Amino acid sequence: MGPRVNPALVDPAPVRAVTRDLAPERAGPAAGPTIPGYGLARPSLVELRERLQRLAPEVDAVAALTLAGARAGVDVGDAADADLGIDELAAVASAMTVERGLLGVIGRSMLIRAVSYVELASVPANAGAQEAA
Amino acid sequence: MSAEVPGGLGGLDLGCEAARLQAIAALGLLDGAPVPEFDALVRDVSERLGVASAAVSLILDGAQYFIAMHGLGGWIGKARGTPREWAFCDRVVRTQAAFEVRDATVDPHVAHNPLVTLDGVRCYLGVPLRTRDGHVIGTLCGLDTVAREFGDADRAAIRALAAQAMVTLEARLSPT
């Protein structure tokens, strides 16, 4: 039997419930740090900060994240907190998307990675096997 | 040294990439506001190519962002894009040339891509969206879950529509 076809590509309607809070303790060991099959690592505030530092070294990354966090109602601390909830990270990234320049680019980019992670993590790990059977 | 930031930037000159990303930023399209003029364009791509899905994709630092899409739902629709490392469109940006896949399961560039192995993408045709300054900011593309061959008429059609898209995009940079 061929690989399953994900409705993401053929059905405009959302087909699975979305897990809105996937902090590590709730994602559980089955989800792990990466999405099975996809290999997508859980995005983190540290990753966001490193993207800023790499692509926009002229920007004070910690200050930018602090401002975005304030807009989103999220305390980003010293921007080194790798355990920030994925929803909170998405909120910070979303707040960055209205910024001009590379901040907006990096914010949108991180928002897509965070939403992809949340959406894919909500798919049961053995769904493909069940459908194939 | 910090660890490699996951997803998307491998093998790129960061200076050039930052300039390309600045060109994207200048369009002012990143806040998620709808761009209605592109909705008709992606429907047109879908109809003319006879594919189920089409998109205007901007390649960002770590993701592709669909500023318009047709026939894409589920997690891709929710995210309005995908991580960059899975984006067929990223190959268009890196090579600055069109990319065409007839059967993704046997194409060495994408056969192991999860969009193929898990999401069922089989065919793809994407052409560059290039600014006057020469930056390839993304693609206009069509794709489907069935393998198929594209012909000269398909290639001509999508190139013409991409040129139309760039007129619209460049107008955002120099409004009259």
Structure description:
The complex is a heterodimer of chains A (133) and B (176). Chain A is mainly alpha-helical and 133 residues long. Chain A has a domain at 39-124. Chain A has six helices and no strands. The relative contact order of chain A is 0.19. Chain B is of the alpha+beta class and 176 residues long. Chain B is 38% helix and 22% strand. Chain B has helices at residues 14-26, 36-49, 74-79, 88-95, 114-117, 152-173, and strands at residues 53-59, 63-70, 81-83, 99-101, 123-130, 136-144. Chain B has a six-stranded antiparallel β-sheet with strand order 3-2-1-6-5-4, with helices on both faces. In chain B, strand 1 (53-59) and strand 2 form a beta hairpin. Chain B is globular. The chains are: A mainly alpha (133), B alpha+beta (176). At the A-B interface, helix 2 and helix 5 of A face helix 1, strand 2, helix 3, strand 3 and helix 5 of B.
Describe the SSE topology.
The complex is a heterodimer of chains A (133) and B (176).
Chain A: H1 24-31, H2 45-55, H3 61-72, H4 86-96, H5 102-121, H6 127-132
Chain B: H1 14-26, H2 36-49, E1 53-59, E2 63-70, H3 74-79, E3 81-83, H4 88-95, E4 99-101, H5 114-117, E5 123-130, E6 136-144, H6 152-173
Antiparallel strand pairs in B: 1-2, 1-6, 2-3, 4-5, 5-6
Overall geometry of chain A comes to globular
CATH-defined fold name of chain B: Beta-Lactamase
Main beta sheet of chain B: 6 strands, antiparallel
Spatial extent as radius of gyration of chain B: 15 Å
End-to-end distance of chain A: 9 Å
Structural class of chain A: mainly alpha
Spans of chain A of at least 5 consecutive residues whose pLDDT stays below 50 are: 11-32, 126-133
Mean pLDDT of chain B: 93
Topology order of chain B in helix (H) and strand (E) letters: HHEEHEHEHEEH
CATH class of chain B: Alpha Beta
The number of helices of chain A is 6
Total strands of chain A = 0
Largest interface: A-B, 47 and 48 residues
